[in-house]
Amino acid sequence: MATTPHEHGYNPALLHHFDTPGQQKEAATLGMWAFLVTEIMLFGGIFLAYMVYRWAYSGIWAAAAPHLNTPLATVNTVVLLVSSLTVALSVHAAEMGNKRQLVTLLLVTILLGATFLGIKFTEYGEKFAHCAGYANPVAWMTGGERLAEAECLVPGTNFLFPTEVASAAEGSADPVLVARPGMKTPHQLFFFLYFCATGLHAIHMIVGITVMSVIAWMARRNKFSPTYFTPVEIGGLYWHLIDIIWVFLFPLFYLV
Amino acid sequence: MSTTALINHYATNRATTASAWLKSWLLTVDHKRIAILYLISINVFFLLGGLAASAVRLELITPQGDMMSADMYNRMFTLHGVIMVFFFLIPGIPSVLGNFLIPLMIGARDLAFPKLNLLSWYLYMGGGIFALCAAVFGGVDTGWTFYTPFSTSYSNSNVVLTIAGAFVMGFSSILTGLNFIITIHKMRAPGLTWFRLPLFIWAHYATSLIQILATPVVAIALLLVMVERIWHVGVFDPAIGGDPVLYQHLFWFYSHPAVYIMILPAMGVISELIATFSRRRIFGYEFVAFSSIAIAILGFLVWGHHMYVSSQSVYSGLVFGFITMLVAIPSAIKVFNWTATLYKGSISYRTPMLYALGFIGLFIIGGLTGIFLSVVAVDIHVTDTYFVVAHFHYVMVGGTMMAYLGGIHYWWPKMTGRMYNEAWGAISALVVFVGFNLTFFPQFVMGYLGMPRRYHVYPQEFQIYHVMSTAGSTILGIGFMIPLVYLLLSLRYGRMAGDNPWNAPGLEWQTNSPPPTFNFETQPIVTEEAYAFQPE
Asked: Is domain B28-510 given the CATH code 1.20.210.10 in the classification?
């Protein structure tokens, strides 16, 4: 009666506490889906804060959003969507047992992820360079071109939204601010949520790249076969989730 | 059979040197050992939280501030709250009893992700060390709720360190919940259908759902508080347009369901105890099972009842109040079904049963006062008074604590292979029950009369209630110490328990005490429903 696990030959991928590889795979996949739910709830808090503040300060949101670098973010969106394609193809390659293709696709995915992060940090660098008074990160490092009009979009004590000064001079302040004298302009909230959401997303990208590197290394070491490639599959699920979150972040921040 | 070789490899990791012994505990992936690690660490935290509570109660004997300053008092009740909520009540029953019993009860060799399980313990300890460091470096004075903007802009205490502790511990909770859900879904023994599961498993399933859905939200809320406090970016600061009440929404979206993380596993324990010691199948099994799920779902829709006085609209207050009352339905279903199980049962008043009966009594008081508090008008009258303090202590201490102790006694022979001293067990249950009521019942009265919480000085007229409460807490403290002594003594002097000292039908009793590394010698196959008691 004892259907003990290891009767039918030794399977190095089957852990001791599972009965069959099928059970192990189902557990791993369900586990990843449950984890993805927790990730959605984690980002959900930020989305809620975004909703509340956008509802309260819609005019300010419209004024602040154009200060983000939409062309770079568009390129990033394309990069990330292509990386999702390569991940999907890598799962297929694993299923087919095509090791060469699998490793290549995983490496391309990692490269695309790194490209995304590179572009993202260029965007961040631009904002920080502006705070230091320089036009762009390169100028900041080389001591080159200065910024014409003072601007600092990094939340904190130095935060300075350029038109904030202008509109105050014209006396055409936002009605929200007129109703609450003494309150500083809430433009900072937009940029805080921007840094917070995209920063958290970037951290997830770094984790994703690490996971993909491990999986690529495992693939190179012949750890996978057409009967066992669960890590490729659940790693792919995680990667897709990071992608989907970006698909929401992009319009929420750049296309207001 | 190649099985034997592998199992022997796992079973013979008997340590011969001290470092090997340490490694066999600190690097174990065996759910039973991890449960014991939790048992020890959680009890240490309970002791620390209890010491802070004693300091609070001592200070309150007289109306003046004798022992400590107002500031010190704030830090003391915050320490009590943070440790008890985050490091005792939330992980308590799931991480100790759930960890030990879920694989045993469903006939599995381990949880689905054993390494993740070990990681949860390390995260728990990491979070605990953060919180303790915060206490050692001067404590924190915000209360366990970390309300903004006090916590972000005004408090001069170790808010960030404490919150980091709660944040890290949250991930331990998420991983435990995730592990349980997958284990219950995928690792059940052949023949163990959903409606043959012990109610303990149903309760833990419902708890785990809350853990994975609600905890990430508080994680992000606490992260935002830390960021706000360090960089003053304005997210909860009204001076820059931020909304402090948003924090309360995010916080209570977790922290209300969190009270069901505390009480649902306790209810699961009580179902097991009532069934075994009345030797009957739980009356209305399906209803008790689904009431756990119902509580988990409704629990997500009532967070606003913590915010009646926070500028929330009266109309949302009324809706939240109504949904809060609905929670009483599944809770009452449980209590009525437990009572119906006792009817014509073959009841034996062993120690775990005494705790279980105590639980029912205290939970009824805690639950009914919860309905008082769901009514907006009454709640506004008693907001931030000792009435609220008494209510949640009746549910959390009277509920969770009683079930935790009852469960520890009931499964102690399974965990250790030894029986504890039954007479002392009965005495401790009685002392805890008496001490508890003497501590917290006067708090209902003084709260209703207007004694606010979180003050270390108070008008003369409340002194009599405070003295009664402090006397009760002393008895309660003794009640907690007695089991500590005889349970530890039983490890050496207790008589051998045998595999099934209670003659109970659950799968966990069908294996050795303590169970072997792989839990069962042969894969159990389930052919009957839970609680199929044989006539004695």
From this structure: yes
CA B294, CA B480: separation in Å to the nearest integer? Answer: 33
| Nearest residue to B356 (alpha-carbon basis) of B271, B483, B421 | B271
Q: What's the confidence (pLDDT) of residue B397?
A: 87
Residue A62 is part of which domain span?
A: 22-254
Cα–Cα dist B61/B40, whole Å: 32
pTM here is 0.93
> How many Cα atoms are found within 13 Å in the side-chain-facing hemisphere of B310?
20
C-alpha B173/C-alpha B179 separation (Å) is: 10
Flag whether pLDDT at B5 surpasses 50: no
Mean pLDDT (whole number) for A210-238: 95
- Over residues A25-48, the mean pLDDT reads 96
C-alpha separations of B168 from B122, B125, B174, B326, B387 in Å: 10, 9, 10, 33, 32
> Tell me, what CATH number does A206's domain have?
1.20.120.80
3-state SS assignment for residue B233:
coil
pLDDT at B239: 83
Residue at token pair 């009258």: B381
The three-state (H, E, C) secondary structure of B287-354, written as one string: HHHHHHHHHHHHHCCCHHHHCCCCCCCHHHHHHHHHHHHHHHHHHHHHHHHHHHHHCCCCCCCCHHHH
* Interchain pair A184, B239: CB under 8 A: yes
Q: Are A189 and B242 an interchain contact pair (Cβ–Cβ within 8 Å)?
A: yes
* Cα B479–chain centre separation: 18
Of the candidates A2, A23, A157, which has its C-beta nearest B522's C-beta?
Answer: A2
A30 within a domain of the structure (yes/no): yes
Per the domain annotation, does A89 fall within a domain?
Answer: yes
Instruction: Provide the ipTM.
Output: 0.91
- Kindly state the greatest CA–CA separation across chain B: 77
| Tally of CB atoms within 10 A around B70 | 13
Convert the pLDDT of each residue in B479-488 to its tens digit.
999 999 999 9
Looking at the domain assignment, is residue A143 inside a domain?
Answer: yes
CB distance A70 to A254 below 8 Å = yes
Whether residues A34 and B212 touch (CB distance < 8 A) is answered with yes
Tens-place pLDDT, residues B468-482: 999 999 999 999 999
The three state secondary structure string of A133-158 is: CECCHHHHHHCCCECCCCCECCCCCC
pLDDT value at residue A180 = 57
Tens of pLDDT, residues B303-320:
999 999 998 899 999 999
Q: How many domains does chain A have?
A: 1
Residue A1 lies in a domain: no
Asked if the Cβ–Cβ distance from A38 to B238 is below 8 Å, we say no
Which residues of B fall within a CB distance of 8 Å from A183? 238-241
- Averaged pLDDT, B195-222: 96
